[in-house]
Amino acid sequence: EALRRRLEKRIYIPLPDEEARLGMFKVNCSSIKLADDVDFRRLVKRTEGYSGADICSVCREASMMNLRDRLRKARTKGESGVALDVDRLRAEVEGRPVTMGNFEQAVKNVQKSVGTEDLRNSLIMTMHPLTSGLRDYVTAADHTRYDGLADGFIRVDVTHSNLQARVHDATLSLDAPISSVKQKLYKRNGTTVDHMQLFLRRGDGSTIFLYDDKLTLR
Fold first, then answer.
1. pTM recorded for the entire structure
2. Which one of 60, 75, 81, 114 is separated from 13 by 20 to 30 angstroms, measured CA to CA?
3. CB-count burial class (<10 Å; 0-12, 13-18, 19+) for 102
4. How confident is the model over 113-139, as pLDDT tens digits?
């Protein structure tokens, strides 16, 4: 973390979605002998928020468990490392397939390298040029959603996937209309716009853009 603080610029790269993670598991396990009970779809569900490097570590960790288990048994029997038949040990380990249990234990051992706080900060940095007071908005949006039937807000869980979706959707949905309004303001007033506030009128989805609390465009 101390090293990351010294970097001048950070670039946000979205984490892999379910289909991407499925492909990563297949590629990383292409040379590994797998047991019949290995279910990649289940592993994909268990690894939400994992990066490509994290998934690679999970596969490597799972593939090493048979070797670790064999060495543990050797130490229990009192065999020394020198006395072990390397060729026999390699053949014995390679002959044992990696099971779903190995993968599940590997997922427990390998922690996510990208946390929810990293994604939240990325959202703030991405949207900062477009709106002010975004930190308060993100803090609220992380924990609430509008329920039209109840005419109020209810608390919901936040996952890596919907945080990433907010970064992508908010950028696409706000960038084009803001650019359009800025052009209209420039043509009308002959001046450029540096700051804008965005308001969403609850219920009808209309967006109102205010500049200096004087000009309103719909």
1. 0.52
2. 60
3. buried
4. 887 777 676 666 655 555 444 455 555
